[in-house]
Specification:
The complex is a heterodimer. By secondary structure, chain A is an alpha/beta fold. Chain A has two domains: about 220 residues, Rossmann fold, CATH 3.40.50.12780; about 100 residues, GMP Synthetase, Chain A, domain 3 (2-Layer Sandwich). Chain A contains twelve helices and 22 strands. Chain A has a nine-stranded mixed beta sheet, sandwiched between helices. In chain A, strands 11-10-12-13-16 form a five-stranded antiparallel beta sheet. In chain A, helix 5 crosses helix 6 and helix 11 crosses helix 12. Chain A starts with a helix and ends in a 5-residue tail after the last strand. The relative contact order of chain A is 0.12. Chain B is an alpha+beta fold. Chain B has five helices and seven strands. In chain B, strands 1, 2, 3, 4, 5, 6 and 7 form a seven-stranded antiparallel beta sheet that branches. The longest helix of chain B is centred in the first third of the chain and has 11 residues. The radius of gyration of chain B is 16 Å and the shape is globular. Classes of the chains: A alpha/beta, B alpha+beta. Chains A and B meet through helix 12 and strand 21 of A and strand 1, strand 3 and strand 4 of B. The structure holds zinc ion (ZN).
Chain lengths: ~425, ~140
């Protein structure tokens, strides 16, 4: 049941004590870096976790500004790996790892996968991007650490993915939710029966915020249990928080990070149970400790005990990123609301993009949805009924009346990494 | 029973061509068609010589396609003949969901392709009224 029973079920008191010790060590270590040297100059040793709020926040922009080595807290001779964001403007964010960092990250990844039910007899197909993106290599090392046969296939080439699944009898898959939906189209096209022809059991889905409806859809399409994975490259990558078999929030590994929720406008810490921005302080990182890193992910901490017996608190499914919020004629909208609504209408296709444009000085929202080949009845009347249904359901969810447009299956752009679903065509922005 | 093929189409240049190309490379002969469209998308009905095969190859090319039952009635290629057919149908409260026509090879008669709600009855009703209803062999190849 447990990968590391003692740690995973450690009592709260010991866990908090351990966290405080770790934070003090991380502060001492961080002072070695150019970036934190001044920022932590006036910080003494913390006496309680309450005092964490005295620590400065760290933002993605801080990491960019300290490019390339400003946040490095150790000698380069100890550094064995870097990952980097694919920043299109300005400097990328660069994250460094020592050998211990890689080992600790592999350990929490293995712990996450083990918690979901993966075992060393499993065959693990990792469809996440390898390379600078941390999603692929993170779980690759975790899968090996757990002892699974790990197939480093990487993303794309759906036919080859399915060929591997069939011939190696893949049981566990790590996949972007948007790609899982797309791949299921190829399964239908090739006439593969997921129950008879494949041996799939467990999916790890992450790297894109997604709705509960999306998870259900993926579980149904592949006849698997799909587990929500949370992580970010700045801390390390996937496996920072993960769902247990009860699939009711993600246990955040509190021996690895110290989580806080802050108000997304005032940045004041909020009590457990209240929604705000997730802020993480690293507890074990050697190359690049981070103080109160602002993730921009919106969630809440669930402190009630979990049925599985783990004492590490849970975070709720990420509802959105503060970055993703769209403002349409003054109304705040998150893309996940649109996804949830589309997936609740079974006759609609599953792939979509959101376009914002202006019309007579008013913001307009257009949702392009791929036609569902399975449920296409062949009359314009049926399509118009479906179109009206989607417009009404979206209007109810968003308080904005969208334009719904159907497009051919497979016609919407898909990137190898995360799906880019929002296109802002407005001139003012 | 006879069928035509219904496909989803975006109102953009090149979209129809994609469909006709699939049909052409698979040696499927297109006999007639009709288009119903809203602002940005539409549905195209295609009468072909081999609807089963057309359905399969279009589906394989990831095109939204469905088969729909039709009746084809022969009318003379003269003024008022189509009108007579419509009046006959209306008199029996038969609702037409879709309809288009094409000239038959003799040039003197045309086939009117109908989608209605109630097939066996419509077919029988029209035969009883003296209309020539084409069998599927004739619809696909006549
Ligand atoms: Zn649990």
């Amino acid at each position: 049941m447990f990968w590391q029973k003692e740690i995973e079920t450690q009592n709260k008191e010991n866990l908090r004590k351990f966290q405080l010790e770790c934070i003090n060590k991380q502060i001492a270590l961080a002072r070695n870096s150019q970036f934190y040297k001044d920022k932590l100059a006036n910080i003494d040793k913390l006496n309680s976790l309450e005092e964490v709020r005295k620590l400065p926040f760290t933002t993605k922009q801080d990491l960019r500004d300290s490019f390339p080595y400003g946040c490095l807290a150790t000698d380069l001779k100890n550094v064995v790996r870097m990952h980097s964001s694919s920043g299109t403007t300005g400097n990328p964010t660069v994250i460094f790892h020592t050998k211990d960092d890689i080992a600790n990250w592999a350990n929490i990844s293995a712990r996450s996968m083990y918690m979901a039910g993966a075992r060393n007899t499993d065959i693990f197909q990792n469809t996440m991007g390898y390379g600078l993106f941390s999603g692929g290599l993170g779980f690759h090392y975790g899968g090996e650490r757990l002892g699974m046969l790990t197939i480093p296939i990487g993303p794309g080439n759906s036919k080859r993915q399915l060929w591997f699944m069939q011939h190696f009898k893949t049981t566990v898959v790590h996949i972007l939710p948007s790609y899982a939906l797309r791949l299921s189209g190829t399964i239908k096209e090739l006439g593969i029966d997921v129950k008879k022809d494949l041996n799939l059991k467990i999916f790890f889905i992450g790297a894109e915020p997604h709705s509960e409806a999306m998870r259900k859809k993926i579980e149904e399409l592949y006849d698997v249990k799909a587990f929500n994975s949370y992580g970010l490259s700045e801390i390390s990558g996937p496996g920072i928080a993960f769902e247990c078999p009860y699939q009711d929030g993600l246990h955040i590994w509190e021996d690895y990070v110290y989580p806080e929720i802050v108000d997304s406008k005032t940045f004041e810490p909020l009590p457990d149970g209240q929604e705000g921005e997730l802020v993480l302080t690293t507890l074990q990182r050697q190359a690049m400790p981070l103080m109160r890193y602002r993730t921009k992910d919106l969630t809440k901490i669930i402190s009630e005990p979990c049925k599985c017996g783990r004492t590490h608190r849970r975070i709720a499914r990420i509802t959105a990123r503060t970055d993703d919020m769209m403002i349409i004629n003054g109304v705040n909208i998150f893309p996940i609301q649109i996804e949830k609504t589309i997936l609740s209408v079974p006759e609609a296709g599953k792939n979509y993009i959101i376009e914002l444009f202006d019309n007579n000085c008013m913001d307009k929202l257009r949702v392009k949805i791929e036609i569902n080949n399975e449920t296409f009845k062949g009359t314009l009347k049926d399509l118009e009924i479906l179109q009206n249904k989607l417009v009404n359901e979206l209007k109810q969810e968003l308080d904005v009346t969208p334009v719904v447009q159907f497009v051919e299956s497979g016609s919407l752009p898909v990137t190898e990494g995360k799906a880019k679903r929002v296109i802002d065509l407005r001139t003012k922005k | 029973m006879a069928y035509h093929i219904s496909v989803f189409l975006e109102n953009n240049p090149g979209k129809l061509e994609k469909i006709t190309t699939v049909l052409a490379v698979n040696n499927i002969n297109l006999r007639a068609m009709s288009l119903a469209s809203s602002e940005t998308f539409g549905v195209m009905k295609l009468l072909v010589d081999n609807p089963e095969k057309a359905y399969e190859v279009l589906k394989k090319n990831n095109i939204a396609v469905s088969k729909r039952q039709i009746i084809a009635v022969v009318v003379d290629n003269v003024c008022g003949s189509f009108n007579k057919l419509l009046i006959t149908l209306a008199s029996n409260k038969i609702n037409i969901e879709d309809c288009y026509g094409f000239l038959l090879s003799d040039g003197k008669t045309a086939a009117i392709v109908l989608e209605t709600e109630d097939y066996p009855n419509t077919e029988k009703f029209l035969s009883d009224k003296g209309f020539e209803v084409l069998n599927s062999e004739k619809i696909y190849n006549y």
